[in-house]
Write a structure and sequence with these properties.
Layout lengths: L7 E13 L10 E17 L3 E6 L4 E6 L2 H7 L6 H12 L7 E8 L9 H16 L6 H16 L5 H8 L2 E5 L2 E4 L8 E5 L6 H14 L1 H24 L2 H18 L4 H11 L5 E5 L6 E5 L5 H9 L3 E5 L7 E6 L1
The structure holds (3R)-3-hydroxy-3-methyl-5-(phosphonooxy)pentanoic acid.
Length: about 325
């Protein structure tokens, strides 16, 4: 009997926000991340040309590569955007080299470079789509760890939180080496404000490292406090206590300020939001720009968005229970 092979598969994976614990997580503190309902999509299909063809339409990039492991690997260090995607491909091809050429089409609803985990979501959906197309049957943990390798090319020394949440979905309580999925029953409505200020995670991770090295005792205490915030935040999130969660977000923001990742421009926006009497507001991710998350009384979401929309890009989101998902298969 002939094996029925796939011709085409589309996978998707969510972006994320970090509710508590960014930066401190790099030093072993706990963090809480939550998948959001904005996703990246990758369609992988077999093509007749013996090549790997990649089209990333959001960044207007299309490139063809010879179907040769060494040739592809030699390109990885030289290509900023394609490199991490190629790395996902080679890590899969090392497990099973395709007999036919492959085309990848990549698109995303997640704003790029804004701290919402777009690179991890693209890596997870790329590995997920290739895993499906080549019928490798990798587990979700294996997919997440291959995506992590490609995240290292983007961010230097990432904690692994982005690929973990994008693969699993839902909300996770994360410490280096341990991931606990949380049982969050409520919707957790969140407003995201994109400051449109571009920033690079590795730069801000490096800045915090400099400060930590200059003042280890003080910074260790800051990171320990963040660890306690995440622990408390976990209980509150599982119980859906939005007001108390907001209060903890404000305390975490104070500590992010102490770590030096809130620039004057970001702090100005945060202070403006505070005046609207929200439950909580903080940076999400590396800081220096990127996105700000807001928790408020669900009945006030429309009003608060309306007030902030005059000057900012703002959108409403909530918890996504789905991690990596197969959207479509063509046999
Ligand atoms: O890439 P971002 O902006 O989502 O930030 C990642 C979170 C950090 O804690 C700053 C770094 C990390 O690898 O955990």
């Amino acid at each position: 009997m002939l094996a029925i092979t796939l011709k085409e598969i589309t996978a998707s994976a969510p972006g994320k926000i970090i509710l508590f614990g960014e930066h401190a997580v790099v030093y072993g503190s706990a963090a809480i991340a939550m998948a959001i309902n904005l996703r990246s999509f990758v369609t992988a299909k077999f093509i007749s040309e013996k090549q790997l063809s990649i089209h990333a339409k959001d960044v207007h990039l299309s490139q063809e590569f010879p179907l040769d492991l060494e040739a592809i690997e030699s390109k990885i260090p030289h290509l900023k955007i394609m490199g991490p995607i190629l790395n996902c491909c080679t890590s899969i091809f090392k497990k099973k080299f395709p007999e036919n050429g492959i085309e990848l089409k990549i698109w995303s609803q997640i704003p790029l470079g804004a701290g919402l985990g777009s690179s991890a979501a693209i890596a997870v959906s790329t590995v997920g789509a290739l895993n499906g197309l080549l019928e490798l049957n990798l587990s979700i943990e294996e997919i997440s760890s291959l995506a992590f390798e490609s995240e290292c090319l983007v961010h230097g020394t990432p904690s692994g939180i982005d690929n973990t949440i994008s693969s699993h979905g839902g909300a996770v309580y994360y410490k280096k080496g341990s991931v606990k999925r949380m049982d969050v029953r409520s919707k957790i409505p969140i407003l995201i404000l994109d400051t449109k200020i571009k920033r690079k995670t590795s730069f801000w991770v490096g800045k915090v490292k400099e400060k930590y090295n200059a003042n280890r005792q003080v910074f260790s205490l800051i990171f320990q406090s963040v660890d306690k915030i995440s622990l408390k935040g976990r209980q509150l999130l599982e119980r859906g206590y939005l007001k108390d969660l907001g209060e903890l977000m404000n305390v975490n923001q104070g500590l992010l300020d102490a770590m030096g990742v809130a620039t004057p421009e970001v702090s100005k926006i945060i202070n403006k939001i505070r005046k609207l009497n929200v439950f909580g507001v903080k940076i999400t991710g590396a800081g220096g720009g990127g996105c700000i998350i807001i928790l408020c009384d669900p009945r006030r979401i429309k009003d608060i968005s309306r007030q902030l929309r005059k000057d900012h890009d703002i959108f409403s989101t909530s918890l996504s229970r789905d991690g990596l998902k197969i959207e479509k298969m063509v046999r």
